[in-house]
Amino acid sequence: MKRQLLKFLLCGAFFVPLTFMGCSDDDNKETPAPEPAEERWITVAGALMGTEPGDGNGGTVVYSVSTADAKNPDKSISVYDDGFAVKSNRTARLQSSEDGNTLFNIAYTGDNGGEFSRYKVNGGGSFTQEDVTVNISQYASTSPRWVKLFDGDKTGIAVNVANIAANNASTGTTPNDAFKYFRGTATVLALNLQDVLISGYKQYQIPLTAEEELLGHAIFRLDAPVLNKAQNKLIIGTWMQKRNPATGLTESSFTRLGSKAVIVDYPSLENPKVITSTVGFGDNSGYRSFNSFLATDGNIYQATQRDSKGSHILKINQSNEYDNSYVFSLDAALGVKDVYVDCWRYAGEGIAYALYTHDGTNQGYVARLDLNAKTATKVDLPYDADLDFGQYQGILVSGDEVFIAVTPVGKDGNIYVINRKTGAVTKGAKLVNKAGNHYIGIF
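That's the DUF4374 domain-containing protein sequence above. Prediction below.
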């Protein structure tokens, strides 16, 4: 869907690309206004209940509307009645093209887990699956974690860690066991989104320091890669784990290391290197959405989860190292305890929006973040105890507007549109819900 372009008659139809030729005063014509930007589809995604309300394990459905309809509070959208089911045994991991006309999906678990699909967005519940497929499961498992790079819809990066084990055949307490580490095999895979083919992949073990590994620390999961400004490095978020060196059993409670990210060369995907923050003490893999962003200032900003000191926004400089002089505690900025970032999105010019919980509850809130001033303000919305952003995937940024789906589990809600410059909030279309379900993103 595209808005019909306006046609301008300029001085006898004489046109120079990118420049309008001025007319003489005798023509008595005003300089024409700039052409309007093309409108895009707004696709809303909903997660179906599996066995428990809000678990999202019953699959994913999508429905698209015009931008005008998305902003219209008199418009009702019922994705569960009128939507299209995308391929996925559980919650699909969706990405959209920059113009909103294409959806990308890699099925998560099940018989078709790891299968990439591309859909043309036609409006409403009409999505045409294009006759292109590739399956990455043999490299990155049937449950791959992936994101689309911000490179003009060219590349998706899938990552995985598998088969975590000790360096020796068994673990024990005797010196003869010579335990040194637990490590898994990491996969980093590049997917060409246009030609629909695997353009490269690498597999390797990623060591921590010898001291950290002797204590049983290991990288449990990789996720949310982002391309740096020079476009020669990928920064990949990590989810850390600790196992008992004597028994091999996972420890649920442990003293966390500083937040870590993995840097690999791009596009070769070689030479993995671990960098460590001394500001954050949580994971930075996110869950089912982007978790690191290249900002206007050329640096990368990254959110933490499961942080023993509450979520932080961390800064990675253009030398691809953590800037430990940058301290942005969301607990301190919001004046609450134990902030946990479920999903967030950079909106431009130092402004971002975060979906978060605090004080150990599942109730979600929305905050406006100023990365330069290191301030955070809760957005004034109709909050509900059943509002849970735990599986949220897609915050859409289109120009100066930020689109967020706000629906408590099993209850109706709305699209909200926030102006990133002013912070002004506008209620958009109604989102019709069903028992146990919730909306998980806008693309």
